[in-house]
Automatic annotation (TrEMBL):
It catalyses: Hydrolyzes the link between N-acetylmuramoyl residues and L-amino acid residues in certain cell-wall glycopeptides. The keyword Hydrolase applies. Its EC number is 3.5.1.28. PANTHER family: N-ACETYLMURAMOYL-L-ALANINE AMIDASE AMID. SMART domains: Ami_2. InterPro entries: Amidase/PGRP_sf, Amidase_domain, NAMLAA_amidase_2. This is N-acetylmuramoyl-L-alanine amidase. Residues 72-201 form the N-acetylmuramoyl-L-alanine amidase domain. It holds the Pfam family Amidase_2. Keywords: Cell wall biogenesis/degradation, Hydrolase. Signal peptide: none annotated. It comes from the Bacteria.
Length: 234
């Protein structure tokens, strides 16, 4: 979350797939595809919202707590924006204070998830949608943001429980969108172009974290496919 509120990023955009519906419908043998695309197109019209199941989460280990609508933008990722990155943040405060900040429409920023020092996970924005967390529009559109409870200058805040829970979450996100588990695709907020944030800071143990993510990813692969983002995805 850092020290500066991210700027609002609230314009609605018609997805690339919707724009090609007309051409697809006229192509030979594409009638079924066209009907499917047209059925999905209606909610992209400005003022019409895609139906959502209230309280649904994308990660089964998370508890749903809704962020303010002012702190994210409705989308249909990965159909309209491909997801190829996880961005690691530190809250610069307690778990509860981060939740309250993201519920506040004046905050103008929020991440998809918050991970506590005790390993609990809250999801506040669907992975389908664009969270205002990176301070960079392109990075917002292509990433999932994860906040971690604590302060960048207090290494004791980064507990074993936090590392383990966050690694499992990141591994699941990487599996869902086929994101490589490496430091080009799992990055810190400080690495986002144009940002003045320093999180997760010098005490975040990247070597340890990435080993845990890879281990969790391997374990998850052994237990079956991750599935698509949905109320039961995880």
């Amino acid at each position: 979350m850092g020290t500066r509120r991210a700027s609002a990023d609230g314009d609605r955009r018609i997805g690339r797939r919707a724009l090609i519906v007309g051409g697809a419908a006229t192509a030979a043998g594409a009638a079924v595809l066209a009907r499917d695309e047209l059925a999905r197109w209606w909610w992209r019209v400005p003022g019409i919202e895609k139906p959502r199941e209230q309280g649904a989460v994308d990660y089964t280990g998370a508890r749903w707590v809704a962020a303010s609508d002012a702190n994210w933008r409705r989308a249909d990722r990965p159909d309209d924006f491909g997801v190829d990155m996880v961005i690691v943040h530190v809250t610069q405060g307690s778990f509860d204070s981060a939740v309250q900040a993201f519920k506040n429409p004046e905050h103008k920023a929020a991440s998809h998830y918050i991970v506590g020092q005790d390993g609990r996970v809250a999801q506040m924005i669907r992975e389908l949608d664009v969270a205002y967390h990176a301070g960079n529009r392109d990075y917002n559109e292509r990433s999932v943001g994860i906040e971690h409870e604590g302060f960048v200058d207090r290494p004791e805040d980064f507990t074993d429980e936090m590392y383990a829970a966050s690694a499992r979450l990141t591994a699941r996100i990487c599996a869902r969108y086929d994101i490589p588990v490496d430091r080009d695709h799992v990055i810190g907020h400080v690495e986002v172009p144009g940002t003045d944030h320093t999180d997760p800071g010098p005490h975040w143990d990247w070597d340890r974290y990435m080993k845990l993510v890879r281990r969790a990813r391997t374990a998850q692969a052994d237990t079956g496919p991750s599935g698509s983002p949905s109320a039961t995805a995880g």
